[in-house]
Amino acid sequence: MSTKNITPEQILGVMGIEVWQDKETATATETAAPANPATSPDWQKLEQTVKNCTLCALSKSRTQTVFGVGNKKAKLMFIGEAPGANEDLQGKPFVGRAGMLLNAMLQAIGLNRDEVYIANILKCRPPNNRDPEPSEVEHCTPYLLQQIELINPKLIVAVGRIAAQFLLNTTEAMSRLRGRQYHYGPKQTPLLVTYHPAYLLRSPREKSKAYIDFLAIQKALQEL
Ligand code: URA
């Protein structure tokens, strides 16, 4: 089913959030260049390297690697933690229930998945969805850094505590990390933090805060 005609209010309804807002503030934003299907040699090489990676033990338990999806020229890049069971089976990030909620939140600010790029810190699923081990993060980080370099996003969103703490090199709590803009890496790319949708599924009362984060994402994109 096409979601093109669904209003932000309807999507927020699906997310379980009731909002009254000025319609103009929910207007869709043009945020990404049209998808470029031409895959450069750099991308091909990187995807192949990730596919064949055996640098850590997760390579033994994975069904497949989960590289990343979306527009390789996107202005907006989401970075999550690691694939879960559905992602491990399908080979794509954020395709389970948490992924559906992420899609809904994107729709709420007038975006769809194909316009942004979505990747994780780890490219393989940790058993039982445990937190990534430092050594796993260390081995996988170069892949993420190359993705960031190739995409050259104008805004990065860290999805959840693990991604936020990793990208910002901090141990601060989510409650303190949200709601501020940071700058990441050599290009000092603007970076925002939002709750992980899996957390929102467990704590639906926090969805309204996540909606505020997404409005901040929309505003930051408009100001680029
Ligand atoms: N959680 C993540 O952080 N990434 C996924 O791809 C799925 C769930």
Instruction: Work out the strand percent.
Output: 5-15%
CATH superfamily: Uracil-DNA glycosylase-like domain
Distance between the termini: 32 Å
Number of strands: 6
| Unreliable stretches | 20-38
Instruction: Indicate the mean pLDDT.
Output: 89
Whole-number count of domains: 1
Bound molecules: uracil
Q: Tell me the number of helical segments per DSSP (H or I, 4 or more residues long).
A: 10
Largest sheet: 6 strands, mixed
CATH class: Alpha Beta
Give the CA-based shape. Answer: globular
Q: Which architecture per CATH?
A: 3-Layer(aba) Sandwich
Q: Helical content, roughly?
A: 40-55%
CATH topology: Uracil-DNA Glycosylase, subunit E
Helix- and strand-based class? alpha/beta
Radius of gyration, CA atoms, in whole angstroms:
17 Å
Identify the strand order in the major beta sheet.
1-3-2-4-6-5
- Helix/strand order: HHHEEHHEHEHHEEHH
If you had to describe this structure to a student in words, what would you say it looks like?
The protein is of the alpha/beta class and 224 residues long. It has one domain: Uracil-DNA Glycosylase, subunit E. Helices cover 42% and strands 11% of the residues. The protein has a six-stranded mixed beta sheet, with helices on both faces. β5 (182-184) and β6 (189-194) form a beta hairpin. α2 (41-51) runs antiparallel to α6. The longest helix has 18 residues, at 134-151. Mean pLDDT is 89; it is low at 20-38. The structure holds uracil (URA).
